[in-house]
Amino acid sequence: MTKMKLIILDRDGVINVDSDNYIRTVDEWIALPGSIEAIADLSKAGYSIAIATNQSGIGRGYYSLETLAAMHQKMLELVKALGGDIAHIVYCPHLPDDQCTCRKPLPGMLQKILQHYPRDPDAYFIGDSLRDIEAAQAINMPAVLVKTGKGQRSLDKGVIGADIPVYDDLLHFSQQLLKR
Fold this sequence. Notes:
Elements: E1 5-9, H1 35-44, E2 48-54, H2 56-59, H3 65-81, E3 88-92, H4 108-114, E4 122-127, H5 130-138, E5 143-146, H6 151-157, E6 166-167, H7 170-179
Parallel strand pairs: 1-2, 1-4, 2-3, 4-5, 5-6
């Protein structure tokens, strides 16, 4: 029996342009070059795609749940237009001091996603920050860093272990994975 193939993605900085001032509107949600194609290609190749994203801008009052839903709808439509699918999206609306169990670097969102899939899927978590890597490592999930978003900054700080695979962006990761 073949294992279910699952790729979990961070959103801001991996799929779309990130901002230290938060992505607050649908118009500010701009896909990174190649990211939508990468998701569609992975989906068409049999990978189930899920997203785990910290969205403390909700807790800060910067944007509403409706705006977040509209951002996600835009992303879903872009992927669908290329023949792909995003199966699952989870987000953490909490502030860093809210003591929740979902905000990365805690693995709550990853665990929530895994509950929807068969036991022990062949899974990766792709992120652009140390928080993303730590969330995956907390549940022994293979982690990958992309240099987009905060990725290069994380590398420059020297906080990413040498054992973590690093790719220029999500498209580069998908192309390398699909070559195997």
